[in-house]
Each structure stands twice: as C-alpha cells, then as structure tokens.
C-alpha cells in the first residue's frame, strides 16, 4: 500500500469512527434523517402519496419563519413552485426506474417495444407525390414499401409503389424509369455505380399480383454491380399518376461482407432464468447486437431479448436471457417460441455502421416446457441499478426536503 | 446506550464531530460529485467539434441553460454513426464516476443521443476526470469502468429521431451525408428507439411550420413533423396535429398513445406541444424556436 493510500484509508477509518460516535449522540430529531437511498425509498413507496399530497398543500409564508414581505412571499412561492415541480419529476423518475428495472434492460416485455414486435415487416410510408421541382402534386399520394433498410451480402430488397388519391382510391400509375445508384459520401472519392431496376405490375418476379396498381421491384446489390460497394444505394423511380410526374425515393444501406452465420439454437434454464443460446460461426470479431422475440405457446408476443457484447471469431454462442421474474410476472404458456432473430456487427465510428447477419424469419426455436415456479421471482440486481436508484432517490429526497423547508415544515 | 457515554463533555464531542465532518468533506472533495448539462446540436452544427465551451450553435454562451453547461459539438454534416464518438466522448467525460448529466438535444442531436444510449448505453465506460482537451476527450480517472453513463434525463427540442420528410424529398442539400440518415425510414431503422435503459426523453414539439406545411404530414416546425418531434413509434409519414385540428389525429401530451392509437416510443414523454403554432425549428443564434422551451426547462431543472 502506498503512503497516500494508507493515509486515505486511515482518514476514512478515523472519520467513520468519529461520525459513528457523533451520530450516536444526536438528538432524536436529527436521528430521524435517513440515508439518501433509504429515505428515497420511503419517499417513493407507500409514503409517497402522502408526501406528494403534503407537497401540494403547502402555503409559503405561513410557516414558522413567517411573516414575509409581499415580495418575499412571492419569491418564496416561486421557489416552492419550482421545487414542487422538481420533486414531482424526480419522484416519477425514481419510481419508474425502480419499476422498469425489475428486469434487466436486455430482457423486456415486448409491449415496451411496440415497433419491434414485427421487425421484418416492410417499411411502409405514404407521402404526397413530389414533382421534379419538389412541389407536391395536388391530389396524388404515393404509398411505398421497402423490405429492409440494411442489406448485406447476397440479400435482396423488394420495393413497391402505388398511387392513391386524397381519399385513398387507387390511381393508375406508370413507372417510366427506375434505377439504383451508389451515393458517394462527400469525404470519399469513388465512382458512381448505377443499375437499372424494373418495376412491374404483371404478377411476375417481385410482383405478387398482376394489375392491382402496386408496382414491385427487387434489388440484389451483389448481383447488380454493388458487390464491392459499402454505403447507401438510392433507388429513384420516375412515376406518372393523375396527370402528374413524380419520383419515388428509397434508400438502402449495403455492406458486402457477412460477418457471421447462424448455426442453431438451444435453451437452458439456468439460475432461475431461461437462456437461449444462438450459435454462430463468427467470421469477424467485434461488438454484435442481436435481438429476438419470444411468443408464448399461443403465439402471443411476450418478450424482447437483446444482446450487445464483444464476440471473438470462431464458433460462438450469443446468450439471450429471458429473465426469471418476467416469466413469473407474465406467466406465459409453454413451450415458448423464439422468433424473428436479427443481428449485426456494430462498426464503431464508421459508415456503414453495421454488417448484417442473415435474418432468421419466423420461429427459430421452441423451448422445453418449464414450470413457472422453476423461475426465480427475484428482481434484477446490478451495480448499474443500485447506482441509479441511489442518485434518483437522492434527487427526490433533496427536492422533498426543499419543499418541506419552503413550507415551513 | 450507556448513560455515562451521554454525559461526556458535549463541547469536546462537538469539536470531534466537526473534525470528522471536515475529514469526510476533504475525502469527498477527492471524489466530488458534479452535475453537468450537455447540449447536443443538430444539423449544420457551426460550433467547433470537441470544444465544449463553444455555444455558437445555440446562442450567447452566458445564457442560463442548466448547471455546468457543456456544448457537445459535432459537425452536423456527416453520418450519425461516424460522428457519434463526439457524443460518447462527452458522456464519458462528464457522466461517469461520481458525476451526472442532464442532456439537451436539438433536431438530429436526438438521433445522436438515442443512438449512443441504445447501442452503447450498456457498454463498459472508463470513468473520466471531467476536464476535456481540445479534441473533447478526457483522461481516465482511476482506470476502472462502469456500465453505461450517469444520465438523469434527456430534453429533446424538435427531435429528428424519427427523421424528416424534407430528407425524403431531397429538399435539403443532397451533398450532406447526414441528410441520408434523416430519411424517415433510415432514421427509424437505425436503432431501437425504445431502448433508453429506462431514462426519460422529454419531447418538445414546435408547429410554426406554415412554410413547409405542404411537404410534411400533420403539424411541423419547418423541419420535422410531429411524428418525429413527438417520438411516435412505427413508420414515418403519419400525420399528427394540435387538438384544434379536427381533421388530423392529436399528438397527445405525456406518454399516452396518440389519437388513433399509435404509441410513442417507450420512455418518451411529450412535455410541450405547440398549440399556438408559435415556435419553429431554428435557434436563430439566440436559443430560439422550440429550443427556447428546452432551455427554460434546463435552466430551471438541470441543477
């Protein structure tokens, strides 16, 4: 131990001993003050409602310190209003964090992630059709969809476009020309790659139904000249509808190399939680971000599981944990179904910032049947959680004390 | 407690009490806790990247905008992903160890903080001494790490987390890589916007958008529409308005689902909706537009 460390440790011991003595000698009023985290718990548990009511009821200038001048009372009222607002916010933050972190951040009720329930649904948008000069074409709207935004390796992307009027009635549409081209990042000099794309409404190729007014096209970057390109590929379709000319505009972000491939899934009940192990052959080491959905036996979406960690190259397993308390609280019907797995290698400080693994669409794994009481009811515990609860609790307690002070309590 | 212990010299004990308090205060000073207010700019950032004292983007630097305010300047031009290190560096500097942060973000700064928290918010971060060099980085304090950053809450003015139709339409200069990130489909697919690790995003949405009203769905502030500024989940393009508009679904205040049933992203709370259609997107070099509302909140509550 260095001399500095020894002095620091000695100082701590001395101070704690002196404080312990001092605290033991305090009068009862002083002794009633609890530690920040402890008092926050009191403030935010059953006592919180009463405390909030007391906070709201206070009238400044009437406490033991009164009377105040009119100006002083006004200032005090402003201070009270400020601290009441701070207390309300701090209390809400503390209790919502406490309740939310009953489960870890990577194992959540899927209701908290409303747009992650069906991650592979096409991105659908409806916008006014734009003319070449950027002005909206009156009375014509374009409904578009694209199968995905991030594309890797030999993956394909399907696009659709349809014209409708303001009331949603389908309008005849003609796609006069469409092409995909690379978008140069201004910091990188590179040749522009361009490839013609064929939108059709004849029920062939990417089009599912002939003559329904929905024109469809498919882009496969690796086969259309983009195999060595990494970046944005912009698809522009020149369209004509309702007597107006316009443009449909789609972007995808492409990376040519697939960083890892999937190799099966297993599950195991461990330490009161259900772990799904997604096996993978990792070709490129780095930080992987993986998510998967869990449905109950009836097909009801139930949980979102996420993984975000460094992974070495080789045969690896991504562990996605379905937290025990979440199972206990929601009581899903077993066996559970793991579905719609997506994953990518996160490339820090780069664009593109990710290389996608192949999507695993639909059911990927069916769990064994487990009795619900074989799962742990314990809430999540971690240094992160304790750190936050202590700080948020301290904020709530400080604000409450200020409110009480300003109310003369 | 023994009676004899209580009858000791009060003066002597009171003196020792203050000695103890003094020692502890000294020790606490070595690991003092400080709160900071971090401001994250949007597109066309004209502050000096890495200079945390440069508030050019926002307005006069003497204006109250939260305790110990720092300007997390990034270039507002390049991609979110290749500029995000600026935000992570600042979070490492001021929001680790015993220090805590309030965050304020404007426009594309919404994507920056959301991206950092969703994709890096659970990673191991070195605790830093909060003194930044010219590059906006700080040295390690004790060599230890912690999970994520210490963030109390996030205020977002005119958030572009859901993208902007102006980017879809190419209405902004296409030489700007950031514009590609601001396309609604791209912005919404960039990361899981619900994953804030239970930290609150307070959304402030302006609607003085007459000049762009034909270009964007529902109410807008001339650059982003309510679907983004209000943190509405799902695809872009949906129209949300003030309650006075009978022909358009309301953007609701708070966390409740919007009229029509579409949910907000989790831990997103609409604190301000511009029912008077008086605030636009732009700071005008003087903490203006919707930013004025966030500045007021930061000045009052980031303490």
Brief rundown of the structure:
The complex is a heterodimer of chains A (409) and B (303). Chain A is an alpha+beta fold and 409 residues long.
Question: What attributes does this structure have?
Answer:
heterodimer; A: 409 residues; alpha+beta; Immunoglobulin-like; Coagulation Factor XIII, Chain A, domain 1; six-stranded antiparallel sheet; five-stranded antiparallel sheet; 7 helices; globular; disordered N terminus; B: 303 residues; alpha/beta; Rossmann fold; six-stranded parallel sheet; two-stranded antiparallel ribbon; 9 helices; 17% strand
Give an account of the 3D structure.
The complex is a heterodimer of chains A (409) and B (303). Chain A is an alpha+beta fold. Chain A has three domains: 35-101 and 380-409; 132-255, Immunoglobulin-like, CATH 2.60.40.1940; 258-374, Coagulation Factor XIII, Chain A, domain 1, CATH 2.70.50. In chain A, 26% of the residues lie in helices and 36% in strands. Chain A has helices spanning 3-24, 28-31, 36-44, 48-57, 70-100, 324-330, 383-406, and strands at 107-109, 123-130, 136-146, 150-152, 157-164, 170-171, 173-182, 194-196, 215-219, 231-241, 244-255, 260-270, 273-282, 286-295, 301-311, 314-322, 337-346, 354-356, 360-366. In chain A, strands 1, 14, 15, 17, 18 and 19 form a six-stranded antiparallel β-sheet that branches. In chain A, strands 2, 3, 5, 6 and 9 form a five-stranded antiparallel β-sheet that branches. The radius of gyration of chain A is 30 Å and the shape is globular. Mean pLDDT of chain B is 89; it is low at 1-30. In chain B, helix 3 packs across helix 4 (108-120). Chain B is 27% helix and 17% strand. Chain B has nine helices and ten strands. The two termini of chain B are 41 Å apart. Chain B is of the alpha/beta class and 303 residues long. At the A-B interface, helix 1, helix 5, strand 2, strand 11 and strand 14 of A face helix 2, helix 3 and helix 7 of B.
């Amino acid at each position: 131990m260095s001399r500095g460390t020894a002095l620091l440790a000695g100082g701590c011991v001395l101070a704690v001993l002196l404080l312990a003595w001092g605290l033991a000698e305090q009068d009862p009023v002083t002794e009633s003050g609890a530690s920040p985290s402890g008092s926050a718990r009191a403030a935010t548990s059953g006592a919180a409602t009463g405390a909030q009511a007391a906070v709201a009821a206070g009238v400044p200038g009437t406490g033991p310190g009164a009377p105040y001048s009119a100006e002083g009372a006004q200032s005090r009222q402003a201070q009270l209003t400020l601290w009441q607002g701070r207390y309300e916010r701090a209390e809400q933050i503390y209790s919502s964090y406490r309740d939310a972190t009953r489960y870890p951040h990577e194992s959540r009720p899927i209701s908290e992630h409303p747009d992650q329930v069906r991650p592979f649904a096409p991105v659908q948008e409806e916008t006014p059709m734009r003319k070449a000069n950027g002005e909206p074409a009156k009375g014509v709207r374009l409904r578009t969809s694209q199968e995905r935004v991030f594309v890797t390796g030999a993956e394909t992307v399907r696009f659709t476009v349809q014209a409708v009027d303001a009331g949603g009635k389908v309008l005849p549409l003609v796609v006069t020309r469409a092409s995909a081209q690379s978008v140069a990042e201004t910091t990188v000099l590179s040749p522009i790659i361009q490839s013609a794309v064929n939108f059709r409404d004849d029920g062939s190729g990417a089009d599912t139904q002939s003559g329904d007014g929905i024109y469809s096209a498919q882009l496969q970057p690796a086969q259309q000249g983009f195999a060595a390109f990494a970046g944005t590929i912009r698809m522009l379709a020149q369209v004509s509808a309702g007597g107006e000319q316009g443009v449909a505009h789609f972007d995808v972000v492409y990376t040519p190399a697939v960083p890892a491939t999937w190799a099966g899934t297993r599950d195991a009940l461990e330490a009161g939680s259900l772990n799904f192990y997604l096996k993978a052959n990792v070709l490129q080491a780095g930080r992987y971000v993986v998510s998967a959905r869990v449905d109950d036996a009836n097909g009801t979406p139930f949980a979102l599981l996420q993984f975000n960690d460094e992974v070495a190259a080789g045969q690896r397993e991504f562990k996605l944990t379905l937290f025990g308390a979440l199972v206990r609280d929601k009581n899903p019907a077993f066996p559970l179904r793991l579905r719609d797995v997506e994953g990518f290698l996160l490339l820090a400080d780069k664009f593109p910032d990710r290389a996608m693994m192949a999507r695993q669409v639909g059911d990927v794994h069916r769990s064994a049947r487990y009795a619900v009481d074989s799962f742990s009811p314990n809430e999540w515990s971690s240094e992160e959680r304790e750190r936050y609860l202590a700080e948020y609790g301290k904020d709530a307690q400080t604000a409450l004390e200020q409110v009480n002070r300003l109310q003369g309590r | 407690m023994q009676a004899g212990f209580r009858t000791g010299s009060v003066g002597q004990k009171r003196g020792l009490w203050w000695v103890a308090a003094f020692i502890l205060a000294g020790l606490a000073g070595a690991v003092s806790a400080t709160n900071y207010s971090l401001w994250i700019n949007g597109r066309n950032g004209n502050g000096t990247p890495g200079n945390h004292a440069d508030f050019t983007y926002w307005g006069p630097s003497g204006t109250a905008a939260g305790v110990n305010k720092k300007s997390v300047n990034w270039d507002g031009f390049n991609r979110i992903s290749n500029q995000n290190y600026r935000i992570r560096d600042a979070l490492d500097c001021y929001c680790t160890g015993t220090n805590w942060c309030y965050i304020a973000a404007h426009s594309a700064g919404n994507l920056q903080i959301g991206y950092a928290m969703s994709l890096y918010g659970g990673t191991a971060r070195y605790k830093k001494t909060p003194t930044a060099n010219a590059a906006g980085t700080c040295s390690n304090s004790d060599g230890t790490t912690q999970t994520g950053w210490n963030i109390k809450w996030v205020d977002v003015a005119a958030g572009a987390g859901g993208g902007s139709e102006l980017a879809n339409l190419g209405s902004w200069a296409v030489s700007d890589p950031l514009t590609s990130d601001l396309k609604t489909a791209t912005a919404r697919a960039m990361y899981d916007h619900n994953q804030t690790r239970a930290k609150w995003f307070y959304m402030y949405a302006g609607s003085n958008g007459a000049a762009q009203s034909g270009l964007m769905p529902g109410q807008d502030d001339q650059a982003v529409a309510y679907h983004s500024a209000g943190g509405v989940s799902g695809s872009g393009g949906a129209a949300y308005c003030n309650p006075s508009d009978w022909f358009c679904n309301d953007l609701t205040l708070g966390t409740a689902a919007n009229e029509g049933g579409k949910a907000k992203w989790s831990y997103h709370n609409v604190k301000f909706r511009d029912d008077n259609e008086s605030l636009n997107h732009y700071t005008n070099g003087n903490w203006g537009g919707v930013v004025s509302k966030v500045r007021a909140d930061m000045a009052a509550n980031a303490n």
